[in-house]
Fold these 2 entries.
Entry 1:
Amino acid sequence: MKRILTIQDISCVGKCSLTVALPIISAMGIETAVMPTAVLSTHTAFKGFTFRDLTDDMTQIANHWNEQKIGFDAIYTGYLGSFEQIDIVSNLFKQFKTENNLIIVDPVMGDNGKLYPGFDNAFAKRMAKLCENADIIVPNLTEASFMLGIPYLANGYTHEYIEDLLIKLTNLGAKKAVLTGVSFKHGELGVYGYDSATKEFFSYYREQLPFSFHCTGDVFASTLCGALTLGNKLNKALEIAVDYTVQSISKTIENTEHNWYGVDFESAIPYLVNRIKG
Ligand code: PXL
């Protein structure tokens, strides 16, 4: 069985980060190892969340894995809470990188042109540095703009603009970059990717649903990581990850009693399990 290590926080309530990555990757038939970076009572869109930093445990956990000769087919990082954590994760990449495994960095920092509470431009620059060692990075347009230090454009951009952003993102050092939340046509939303080795671009769009929810980026990145680890090529893995995210949003909208803070990805798990068989 393949084994993915995912490094991000536990937001106890909120349906993001580890509480999304663990069930999704497990449902894909992949062993999921976790390194929790912090424990929050909820994700940061709630008011008054608690935050316990786990930075001090991270190196010890990694060293123990090393002693036990535990390896990973992929390492997927999401929300990281401090500069120090980024540096620890960067060392961990060096410790656990092999010729065949995959490093996926989701530089979770913000959305809709704004950084999440607690982050600033300096943090975005340090996150950009972490992307150096990644095989694939999956920022949204906000995160890409902050990492590159350029103004955020919500819409009205051209294909050339997006392709230039992707080239600049791979110039940070990552082999492949995927921008999420890209739209050229009213009512359509999708992803645009670039492989710097083959100089190929990929894109995939679906209908834009009339609501937007928190944490859909974590659903997308977890699924993409799983699909790639199962051996799918990037374009196929992107389609699976986008389709499952859309399915999760549709299920959330269907549920008239849905929560405001995350999507009902759980109701779409049968779809995902079926989809990865095909
Ligand atoms: O979904 C991204 C995410 C992860 N972790 C925490 C967050 C968020 C988004 O708000 O607050 C703690």
Entry 2:
Amino acid sequence: MPTEPASQQRTAARPDLRIPTHVGVIMDGNGRWAQARSKPRTEGHVAGVKALRGLVQSCIDHGVSYLTVFSFSSENWSRPKDEISFIFGLLRRFVASDLEKLHRNNVRVKIIGVRDGLDDSLRRLIADVETTTAMNTGLKLQVAFNYGGKAEITDAVRRIAALVADGRLKAEDITEDTIGRALYTAGMPDPDIIIRTSGERRFSNFLLWQSAYSELVFVDENWPDFDEASFVRVLEEYTGRDRRFGGVEAQNR
Ligand code: IPE
Ligand code: IPE
Ligand code: MG
């Protein structure tokens, strides 16, 4: 499946930077950030939300079209109960406190991940933020919450298999596009770049299908320390990359 060409958009401030159309971020290192300051891990998550606000603004300023952030994985359920409920509370507070500003800034928000098992009030809040911002035409912000790439693909396979069982789709007609359209990210271009903070070098089940041709950038800073200057450094790194998509020449300029 051809990946969408990277945006040729240039920013006024840094016309030398090539701006990715879709940025994915694995926001990691909140706990270590707090630990280094002798604070509870929960403070790291609070600081992480501030860094997320900053990144949303940076993406708007630089003309990024899609931003997908990993905020709670399907594997994060193995954490202590207290930490899990704190993170859930933080999502509620983020949605409640930031919805108005996000809407004013023309940001469209989607939560991607499994909703079964989330309590009713959280599901209502998610539905509310999505409907309120559905018609916005600015930055498309996807928050991957209770998300796992393998679960997403499994879910897609299940739905496609049901169509085949019903006789509504022939097995031989299944294409990469059929699968792409059955994922939570249906209709979005694949991420051009995936950033992971805190020095870890793995995906931890983030956007497995969609990252086939993403440029990977690993930075050592913990997520709460990631700011506009860090983002610009990442964009500089991305600008220098040769994206070949299996061919022999860079297709990025
Ligand atoms: C990322 O920070 C946030 C979530 C996974 C919810 P961590 O909480 O994983 O922080 P570290 O990796 O323990 O430092
Ligand atoms: C990945 O971080 C998930 C999020 C950032 C939400 P983790 O901290 O959960 O990943 P591992 O356990 O180090 O692989
Ligand atoms: Mg971590």
